[in-house]
């Protein structure tokens, strides 16, 4: 995607101190690390690393909000929007939080880490301070990775996951470039800028930037996972954290040359995600190199 000059952002001034990590003291008794996990951004690797450090009995993995799902009709789309807007109100007569997994422990008093595919504020509330962390990825690279990962694993997923979800059927029958064309033709645009949606519940860079600046303890590009882990370890005292790759796709070709049209379509579909990625990369560089502030 198109590169930008450092600091070339269009949604307000950049804070002198990026994010909250330098200005917030982590207290394991009063704070909970919360990881809104953007799919295919080395999230499983990070989750397992933190779970090992804090102890699995103090961790919760939630259900997914499916922020990037394409819906086949307006009713399904409306229902999904309602679920996202009212995360703390039980639906269908349930007494538990809608993001709880069936085997989740509903006692949050000992929880120190929450992770899942959701946006900030949607997770179960613990009564403690929630410190958000996340990883972002170059949008084109993320798109390609998810396409081949979905193709590789689609046969393992239950048939009900295809109901009202035309994207999964399209992935299974179309080439990468044909799938990009198919996405471009869809009237449902809620799947676009999914990284912004995971950061702030809205598919817009301005809102995502505000979220990064004001509520995120730490966020970094996936390519800098090792540095991210080092910073998080130093800030939290979780010395047992070690980064390693998990859930890596095996069928993605090493060299993929997309046509100019496909690249242009992806740029248009994920324009705000690209701005977010550039911004996070810029801000994380400032954290790693304080002399550049």
Describe the structure.
The structure is a single chain. With 293 residues, the chain is α/β, with parallel strands linked by helices. The chain has a domain at 31-138 and 191-245 and 276-284: Rossmann fold, CATH 3.40.50. It is 39% helix and 9% strand. The chain has ten helices and five strands; from the N terminus they run E-H-E-H-E-E-H-H-H-H-H-E-H-H-H. A five-stranded parallel sheet has the order 2-3-1-4-5. Helix 5 (176-185) packs across helix 9 (260-269), helix 6 (194-200) runs parallel beside helix 7 (205-215) and helix 7 (205-215) packs parallel to helix 10. The model is unreliable at 2-10 and 88-94 (pLDDT under 50).
Set down the secondary structure blueprint.
Layout: E1 31-36, H1 43-54, E2 59-61, H2 74-85, E3 113-116, E4 129-136, H3 139-153, H4 166-173, H5 176-185, H6 194-200, H7 205-215, E5 216-221, H8 225-236, H9 260-269, H10 271-288
Parallel strand pairs: 1-3, 1-4, 2-3, 4-5
Helix pairs in contact: 5-9, 6-7, 7-10
End-to-end separation: 26 Å
Q: What is the alpha-carbon Rg in Å? A: 19 Å
What's the helical proportion of residues?
25-40%
Named CATH architecture of the domain at 31-138 and 191-245 and 276-284: 3-Layer(aba) Sandwich
| Overall outline | globular
Judged by helices, strands and strand pairing, the structural class is alpha/beta
CATH class of the domain at 31-138 and 191-245 and 276-284: Alpha Beta
Strand order of the largest sheet: 2-3-1-4-5
Note the run of SSEs as H and E: EHEHEEHHHHHEHHH
Any idea of the CATH topology of the domain at 31-138 and 191-245 and 276-284?
Answer: Rossmann fold
Give me the count of strands.
Answer: 5
Low-confidence stretches: 2-10, 88-94
In what range is the share of β-strand residues? 5-15%
Largest sheet at a glance?
A: 5 strands, parallel
Q: How many helices?
A: 10
Mean pLDDT: 82
């Amino acid at each position: 995607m198109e590169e930008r000059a450092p600091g070339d952002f269009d949604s307000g001034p950049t804070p002198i101190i990026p994010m909250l990590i330098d200005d917030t003291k982590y207290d394991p008794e009063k704070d909970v690390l919360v990881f809104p996990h953007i799919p295919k951004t080395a999230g499983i690797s990070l989750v397992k690393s933190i779970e090992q450090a804090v102890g699995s009995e103090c961790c919760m993995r939630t259900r997914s909000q499916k922020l990037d799902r394409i819906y086949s009709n307006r009713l399904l789309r409306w229902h999904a929007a309602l679920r996202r807007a009212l995360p703390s109100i039980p639906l269908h007569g349930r007494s538990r939080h809608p993001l709880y997994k069936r085997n989740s422990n509903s006692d949050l008093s000992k929880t120190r880490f929450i992770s899942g595919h959701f946006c900030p504020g949607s997770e179960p509330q613990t009564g403690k301070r929630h410190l958000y962390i996340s990883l972002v990825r170059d949008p084109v690279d993320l798109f390609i990775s998810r396409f081949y990962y979905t193709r590789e694993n689609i046969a393992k997923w239950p048939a009900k996951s295809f109901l009202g979800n035309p994207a999964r059927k399209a992935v299974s029958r179309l080439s990468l470039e044909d799938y990009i064309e198919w996405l471009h033709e869809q009237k449902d645009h809620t799947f676009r800028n999914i990284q912004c949606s995971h950061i702030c519940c809205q598919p817009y860079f301005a809102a995502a930037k505000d979220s990064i600046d004001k509520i995120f303890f730490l966020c970094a590009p996936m390519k800098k996972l090792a540095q991210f882990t080092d910073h998080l370890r130093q800030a939290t005292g979780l010395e047992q954290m070690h980064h390693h790759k998990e859930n890596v796709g095996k069928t993605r070709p090493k060299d993929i040359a997309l046509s100019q049209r496909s690249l242009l379509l992806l740029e248009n579909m994920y324009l705000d995600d690209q701005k977010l990625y550039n911004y996070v990369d810029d801000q994380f560089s400032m954290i790693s190199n304080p002399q550049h502030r």
